[in-house]
Structure formats: structure tokens, C-alpha cells
Amino acid sequence: MVRVSARVQELKRICWLIVAGLLTACSPAPQFTGSQNQPVALADFAGKPLLVNYFAPWCAPCLREIPLLEALAHEGQIAVVMVNYDPATPAELAKLAGQYHIKVPLLIARQEASLPFPRPAGLPTS
User: How far is it, in rounded angstroms, from Cα 122 to Cα 28?
Assistant: First the structure.
């Protein structure tokens, strides 16, 4: 068994903290606004795989798949968020959530959000 000194362990810990800090700094968290007008980041959903669904209130296929997304989220194996494709206000999203009984988070991408994936060309897209 090899004994590692406390100094070496401390240096390893410092190196890992530096690496973690650099990785965090290199990938800024995309920022969103939720239906309650609160700031939201995708990092808030860490711990489970995350399904990001783009939708629009005028998109009939998007509205038809809401119960499926709700059921998937309810199973608890993955987190599900729905990002509004068009400009909307938090009040409009809250009204939509009430109208269609949506419990998964409805999000509005802020303009400065740098998403780790391209904006879809068609809807619905997950």
C-alpha cells in the first residue's frame, strides 16, 4: 500500500478544484425565465438526464404531446422542461400551464442564453 502525504492530497484537491472551476467558466449556464418570472438555468435540473422540448402554443402537435411529456416527467427517471419557441411573457406561460394542466417547467430563453444545442427549425423538437 502506498502512503500519500497530506501535502500531496491537498495539492490533488487544489488541482481538482482548479479543473472544476475552469470547466464551469468555459461553459456558461444558459439562462431562462420561468412561468413565475423566476430565473432558471439548465444546471438547476442536474442529477437526472434532461429532456428539453421546444414548443409553441399555436403548434397543434406540440399541444398533443404535452400529456406524454407530463407522463414521462411523472415517472421520475428524467427531468423534462419545455422551452417556448416564440417570444412570450411569464404571464402567458402561466396561463398556458393552467389551460393545459402543464406541471413541467415552461421556460423562456433569454436573448443572451447560449444553448448547448441549436435552435430547432421545426416544432415540436426535443
Answer: 26
Please state whether the peptide bond connecting residue 49 to the residue before it is cis, i.e. omega within 30 degrees of 0: no
What gap in Å lies between CA 14 and CA 18, rounded to an integer? 6
For the chain, how many residues are written? 126
**Per-residue pLDDT reduced to its tens digit, 39-80:** 998 888 889 999 999 999 999 999 999 999 999 999 999 999
Residues 61 and 122: beta-carbon distance below 8 Å: no
Three cell numbers, residue 126 = 426535443
Strands of the 50-55 sheet, one edge to the other: 39-41, 31-34, 106-109, 79-84, 50-55
Mean pLDDT of 88-98: 92
Strand residue runs (E) in the chain: 31-34, 39-41, 50-55, 79-84, 106-109
Q: How far apart are CA 63 and CA 28, in angstroms?
A: 31
Q: How far apart are the C-alpha atoms of 30 and 73, rounded to whole Å?
A: 21
